[in-house]
Amino acid sequence: MEVKQQLEQELDHLAESFQKLRQAQAKFRDCSETVKKASKAQNEDKSMLVPLTSSLYVPGKMTDVTTFMVDVGTGYYVEKQADDAIKFFDKKVATLTKNLTDLEGVVNSKTGNLRAVEDTLKRKVAEQQQQQQQAPATASA
């Protein structure tokens, strides 16, 4: 029973990790698409709302659509040309896609292990019940 519980906990954790990786992948994919759209020449001098917090914005204007400040992690931002920013985000998406594929293999393996443990437990319970049913029959004979 402990093995079964441990496998279930591991599967829950892996499913949560899988979901977080999918969210990160979607975020980077959105970033790549946004850079592609925003870097078009017709967007120069367009008005936009600039987020200060998740619910606070100020009016702004796109003055340079060729360079972007890219969050490269742990609070560091790097200025990148549009093509380099797109490559950066596409590389992140590719890495996460590979990680998701690898994680899916682990999840499938753990799921198989869990099924094997459940099958073994069911078989043992059935054997035990069969022995208990046979024991009174032989005792009364």
From TrEMBL:
Pfam families (alphabetical): Prefoldin
Top-level taxon in the UniProt lineage: Eukaryota
Gene Ontology cellular-component annotations: cytoplasm; prefoldin complex
GO MF terms, alphabetically ordered: unfolded protein binding
Keywords attached to this entry: Chaperone
SUPFAM superfamilies the record matches: Prefoldin
Residue ranges of the TM segments: none
Sequence similarity: Belongs to the prefoldin subunit alpha family.
PANTHER family: PREFOLDIN SUBUNIT 5
Entry protein name: Prefoldin subunit 5
